[in-house]
Amino acid sequence: MTIESTETATPFLVTSGAWQNLPKMPESEYPGTEGFIGDVYENPQGSVMCSGFFELRNTDAPLYYEYEYDEMKVVLEGEFLLENKETGQKIVAKAKDAIFFPKGSKIYFSTPSYALAFYAGHRDSDLL
């Protein structure tokens, strides 16, 4: 017996070059830092996730970010110096390292030169 589906399969998505020319994070919210971030996919096809790229350049000031959602990152290039002053945790995440930030994490990001990561977060697009 053959069962025919009346549903159409949802196509997957591929986007090239999305890591290039990322928008700069606002100086008013992240003073003294050079962070760049942009979603590639914002809750695509009704998903609860958003994903994109985060780039950081070396500055004297670390970039502070408080997570209002769960997020995972994969470092693609360079390295991030990560610090959570509440827990005392400090770590260097290098290329090909995977990172998980649980909701509520308060993280200071810095880099000795440059770092680029891909992220996926459990959030609505308006929380970036």
From TrEMBL:
Superkingdom as given in the UniProt entry: Bacteria
Regions that span the bilayer: none
Pfam families given in the database record: EutQ (PF06249)
Gene3D superfamilies, sorted: Jelly Rolls
PANTHER family tied to this protein: ACETATE KINASE EUTQ, ETHANOLAMINE UTILIZATION PROTEIN EUTQ
Protein name: Ethanolamine utilization protein EutQ
Record lineage: Bacteria, Bacillati, Actinomycetota, Actinomycetes, Mycobacteriales
